[in-house]
Write a structure and sequence with these properties.
Chain lengths: ~325, ~130
C-alpha cells in the first residue's frame, strides 16, 4: 500500500489525487489524497450548500379538499427532488427579464387528483405533470426511484376529496433553502484510527470495544502501541461519500461542486486584478454572474450527455464560458 | 417575520463590492480584505493556504457574527510581494488545484466504469 505521502511525487506535481472505491447511480465514495483539510472541507461545504438545482418554489392551489392545509402541502411539494440535469441553462428568476417567472427561469408542474373510488387514494410525485415549455425534456421531472414507481408520497385523499394545484419550480441553491440540496448526505471522514486525536471518544469502559472501526480503518496503518504522539501530523487522506437525492448524478455533484468553488475563487481573482472602477457590475446578481466575462475556469463538467451544450442566457450581462472542453494545463491560471 | 431573506447570504447587495482591501497602516505589508457574502468555505480555505506561502508572514480570517455573511481576511507579507499579490497567487493555485481534482476524479471514474464493464456485472454504467 503506497499511502506514504512522500511516495506520491509521481503524481501530477503533488496535487490532489482521487481514488474511487464505489460509484453507482446513488452514491460515489472516494478518497482524496494530497490535499489539506481546508481544501477538502471547502469542497464538502460547497457540495452541500451551493450547487444549483431546481425545486418547487411557488404553489397556486385551485382546490384542496384534503385534510392537509394548503401551506403544509406546498411545503411537501417543495421538498420533492426534481431532475436538475441541464439546470445550468436555466436562469435564476431574479436574473430573468420576466415579471415573475417564465419558461427561461422556471418549470411549471400541475397536480390534479380526485378520489373517485371507495378506498383512500395516495397522491405522489408521479402525479406531478410538467407542462409547458421546458429547456429540455427532463429538467424539472419528479425523481422516481422506488420499486413501485410512485415517487415521494405527497398526500392521501378520502373518497370525493380533490386536490388541484399548479407549481412553479425555480432554480436555487441550498444556502437559501435545503430543498435545493443535490445531496441527501455527504459522508466526510479522515484519520480513522484517531491518531491525530482530533476526536475525544467517550466510552463506558473500553473505547476499542465500544467504537467499532470505520470501513476506512483498513486503508490506513493502525497506530503502533507505545508510539510517541506526532505533533506535526496533519490529515492528508479524506474519505467522501456523496449520496444524491436523485436530482443530479453523484459524480455530477462532485463535478458541479468543483465548478462552483472554482467560480467563487475565479470571481475573486477577477475582482482583485481588474482595475478599480471598471464598472463591471454592481447590484445583486446570482453567484455565477460574479465572474468576469473572460474567465476560463479550465475545468468543466460533461455529465448530462455530450456536454458542450450551448447556453441560452436570456438576459445579457456576463456569460459563463462553461460547457466547453477541459483546457486547463497550459493556459488559464498560474 | 423580521428575519432577513435567506438569499442575502449569497447575493451581493446594491452597489456592494465582493472584496475590498484596506491597508493596515500600523503594521508593515499588511492588508485587511473584506469579503462580502462569503463564509468559512472561502475564508478558511484562503487563510490556510496563505499560511503555507513562504512569503506570507501572517494570515487569518474571522467571521464577526454567524448571522452576518462577511469574512475579514488579514494578510501580512514579508515585503517581497504585497498582500494583494499573495492573495491572487493563492487564489490561482487553488483554482488550478481544484481543476486538477476535477480531472483526477473524471479519470478515476472513467477507469472505474471501464473496469465495471469488464466484470460484466449489472452495477456498472448506471451513472
Ligand atoms: Zn423568467
Amino acid at each position: 500500500m503506497d499511502y506514504d505521502p512522500m511516495a506520491m511525487d509521481d503524481a501530477e506535481s503533488l496535487g490532489p489525487v482521487v481514488k474511487i472505491s464505489q460509484a453507482d447511480s446513488v452514491r460515489v465514495k472516494f478518497e482524496l489524497q494530497n490535499a489539506d483539510i481546508s481544501f477538502a472541507n471547502s469542497l464538502r461545504r460547497v457540495m452541500l450548500g451551493e450547487i444549483p438545482t431546481i425545486a418547487i418554489d411557488l404553489v397556486e392551489i385551485e382546490n384542496n379538499s384534503s385534510v392537509l392545509a394548503d401551506e403544509f402541502i406546498a411545503h411537501r411539494l417543495g421538498l420533492i427532488p426534481l431532475n436538475a440535469e441541464g439546470v445550468e441553462h436555466l436562469l435564476y428568476s431574479r436574473d430573468c427579464d420576466c415579471e415573475e417567472y417564465c419558461e427561461h427561469c422556471s418549470v411549471r408542474l400541475t397536480l390534479h387528483a380526485r378520489c373517485t373510488g371507495y378506498d383512500n387514494m395516495s397522491v405522489s410525485a408521479r402525479d406531478l405533470v410538467p407542462v409547458g415549455e421546458r429547456i429540455n425534456q427532463t429538467l424539472g421531472t419528479p425523481i422516481i426511484t422506488d420499486k413501485d414507481g410512485t415517487g415521494s408520497l405527497i398526500l392521501k385523499l378520502r373518497p370525493d376529496q380533490e386536490i388541484k394545484l399548479e407549481c412553479i419550480a425555480k432554480k436555487g441553491i441550498a444556502k437559501e433553502h435545503a430543498k435545493w440540496a443535490p445531496s441527501a448526505a455527504i459522508g466526510f471522514e479522515y484519520d480513522p484510527h484517531n491518531k491525530l486525536r482530533h476526536l475525544d471518544l467517550w466510552y463506558e469502559s473500553d473505547p476499542k470495544a465500544e467504537w467499532p472501526p470505520s470501513e476506512y480503518a483498513k486503508w490506513e496503518e493502525p497506530p503502533v502501541e507505545g508510539e510517541p504522539f506526532d505533533f506535526d501530523a496533519v490529515p492528508n487522506h479524506f474519505y467522501f461519500n456523496v449520496e444524491t437525492a436523485g436530482n443530479l448524478p453523484p459524480d455530477g455533484i462532485v463535478a458541479e461542486g468543483i465548478k462552483v468553488i472554482q467560480q467563487k475563487l475565479a470571481g475573486l481573482i477577477h475582482e482583485l486584478t481588474e482595475g478599480e472602477g471598471d464598472g463591471g457590475y454592481d447590484g445583486p446578481r446570482s453567484p455565477e454572474y460574479n465572474s468576469g466575462p473572460d474567465t476560463n475556469y479550465g475545468y468543466s463538467t460533461s455529465y448530462g450527455g455530450n456536454g458542450g451544450n450551448q447556453s441560452a442566457w436570456g438576459g445579457g450581462g456576463g456569460t459563463t464560458p462553461f460547457g466547453g472542453q477541459t483546457s486547463y494545463g497550459g493556459g488559464g491560471w498560474s | 417575520m423580521n428575519a432577513p431573506d435567506r438569499f442575502e447570504l449569497f447575493l451581493l447587495g446594491e452597489g456592494e463590492k465582493k472584496i475590498t482591501e484596506t491597508v493596515v497602516n500600523s503594521i508593515p505589508n499588511c492588508s485587511d480584505f473584506m469579503l462580502k457574502k462569503e463564509d468559512h468555505t472561502v475564508g478558511n480555505l484562503l487563510a490556510e493556504h496563505l499560511k503555507k506561502d513562504p512569503q506570507v508572514m501572517f494570515a487569518a480570517y474571522k467571521i464577526g457574527h454567524p448571522n452576518v455573511p462577511e469574512v475579514l481576511l488579514r494578510v501580512q507579507t514579508n515585503g517581497q510581494i504585497n498582500p494583494r499579490e499573495a492573495l491572487v497567487k493563492v487564489l490561482k493555485e487553488l483554482v488550478a488545484a481544484y481543476g486538477q481534482l476535477g480531472r483526477e476524479f473524471q479519470k478515476e471514474l472513467a477507469l472505474r466504469q471501464y473496469a465495471d464493464q469488464g466484470e460484466g456485472s449489472g452495477s456498472g454504467g448506471a451513472i
